[in-house]
Design brief:
- The protein is an all-alpha fold and 469 residues long.
- It has a single domain, classed as Amino acid/polyamine transporter I, CATH 1.20.1740.
- Helix content is 73%, strand content 1%.
- It contains 19 helices and 2 strands.
- A two-stranded antiparallel sheet has the order 1-2.
- Helix 5 runs antiparallel to helix 13, helix 5 crosses helix 19 and helix 17 packs antiparallel against helix 18.
- The two termini are 24 Å apart.
- About 2% of the residues have low confidence.
């Protein structure tokens, strides 16, 4: 049977990390950050940096795991090596049916949304939703029919999106220093009139930033197609994470050089900053770069999603094992696995539209599918890190204990931030009554329950095979 070939290099892996993490959040999370920190720019910058450190703590731990284990889909490999076959199966099932498609579907709409802004379309109107479908199918087709092209697109989109970020970081800072705007923003802004303390503002800022740092784990999905993965994947995780942190911090400093904090806290504050720094074309430049940035993130997520069922099938897990094992002889793409990925992603796009862009099609079962799956993925990392500390007796203490403990703390922060941001207590108003996190968990249990049925079928099949032997 045809197998996946080593067709990606270190640069593609780094661009998977950088390009998947940096989407629209870097351009528009600044307003939320300043609101949460009471308008204190320094606290906001510290929150960006601290959240980046949280991300890199997990990335460092996975980089150590990547030096020891390599099969198909890195994070599933690490789950299998630490916690065993069954845990790896459920993690893979979650990734392919909830985590990747939920975020991929949202990114198809986000990409279409910012393209629609350029043309003056309603962001929830039929034009934008149609374009979201076109983007989704287009990126799927590229990954299913030309995976090498998808890798090149990921690299190109990453470099393109870094251009305005670096320009704003450098030129915005220079302009801000020359005009005095940057110094004023750092020194003359109170903590929201005393309503937000330093510690409270920093915590609120971290909660606002955590979702802007998500998506780096997608890079591990191509380890079976990566040249020298035990060397290149750890490097990609570390280098990519550092690039992301630097980009977020320097960009937000440059942005503060283009407009006052008060302006940046308005809905069009980022546009004003770009226009102040780059002139009349600044706003258009921003929108174009945001669309390219979002498409790069969409492609990175789709690269991971299209390989999901293949990662299960090569382990003889899940439904349609022989079908999803197939790799196209011409394109070397996991074509059947890609079809499943597209189907599930389309269903999640339908849910996202009905739950978040309308009055709510699903009654009380409406939740934000772009962020809540993060609760689960980080919670599922924790048992892997605990078992790692128990099993890896040959490693030095720093790699065996210190890094995993830091990663566990980072995961706990991410889970708490997600719950805190969306609420596990009921939100009650005249229009709705909802437990967002709990209702997401209901969806999670149902989908994982379907996965459990296939696991039971496999167990019975294996027992019959052993009896025959």
């Amino acid at each position: 049977m045809e197998k996946l070939t080593r067709k990606y290099g270190l640069l593609t892996a780094i661009c998977m990390v950088v390009g998947t993490v940096i989407g629209s959040g870097i351009f528009f999370k600044g307003k939320t950050m300043l609101e949460r920190t009471g308008g204190n720019l320094l606290v906001g910058i510290l929150a960006w940096a601290l959240t980046g450190i949280i991300m890199i703590a997990c990335a460092l731990q996975f980089s150590v795991m990547a030096t020891k284990h390599e099969k198909v889909n890195g994070v599933v490999d690490y789950a299998e090596a630490t916690f065993g076959r069954r845990y790896a199966y459920y993690l893979a099932w979650f990734l392919v049916n909830i985590y990747y498609p939920a975020m991929t579907s949202v990114l198809s709409w986000v990409s279409a949304r910012y393209f629609g802004v350029i043309l003056g379309w309603d962001i929830t109107g039929p034009e934008v939703m149609t374009l979201a479908g076109v983007f989704l199918i287009g990126v799927y087709s590229m990954n299913a029919l030309a995976p090498k092209l998808a890798g090149k697109f990921q690299t190109s989109a990453t470099f393109i999106k870094l251009v305005p970020i670096l320009l704003m970081a450098v030129i915005g800072s220079i302009v801000g220093l020359a005009k005095g705007t940057l110094i004023d923003n750092f020194t003359n802004v109170s903590l929201g009139g005393g309503s937000v303390s330093f510690g409270g503002g920093l915590f609120a800022g971290v909660v606002a930033a955590v979702f802007a740092y998500e998506g780096w784990i997608c890079a591990t999905s191509i380890n079976a197609e990566l040249e020298n993965p035990k060397k290149n994947l750890p490097l990609a995780l570390i280098i990519g994470s550092i690039v992301v942190i630097i980009a977020y911090v320097l960009y937000n400093i440059g942005l503060a050089g283009g407009a006052s904090v008060g302006t940046l806290m308005t809905d069009d504050g980022v546009y004003v900053a770009f226009k102040n720094v780059f002139g009349a074309v600044g706003g258009t430049l921003l929108n174009v770069c945001v669309v390219i940035s979002c498409l790069g993130t969409l492609n990175g997520l789709m690269m991971a999603e299209t390989r999901g069922m293949y990662a299960l099938a090569v382990r003889n897990e899940g439904p349609g094992i022989e079908m999803f094992k197939q790799v196209d002889k011409v394109t070397n793409a996991t074509t059947n696995s890609s079809v499943w990925g597209l189907l599930v992603t389309v269903l999640w796009l339908l849910y996202f539209y009905g739950a978040n862009l309308t009055s709510g099609w699903f009654g009380v079962f409406n939740f934000d599918s772009s962020e809540l799956p993060i609760i689960t993925i980080y919670a599922m990392y924790i048992p892997m890190f605990i078992v790692w500390m128990k099993k890896e007796k040959s490693l030095p203490k720093f790699k065996r204990f210190v890094l995993p403990v830091l990663a566990i703390i980072a995961c706990a922060v991410m889970v708490f931030a997600a719950v805190y941001a969306h609420g596990i207590v009921p939100f009650k108003s005249s229009e709705k009554f909802s437990f967002p996190v709990l209702f997401y968990l209901v969806f999670f249990v149902v989908i994982m329950g379907i996965g459990a049925i296939f696991d039971v079928i496999k167990t019975k099949r294996d027992k019959k095979s052993q009896i025959k032997e």
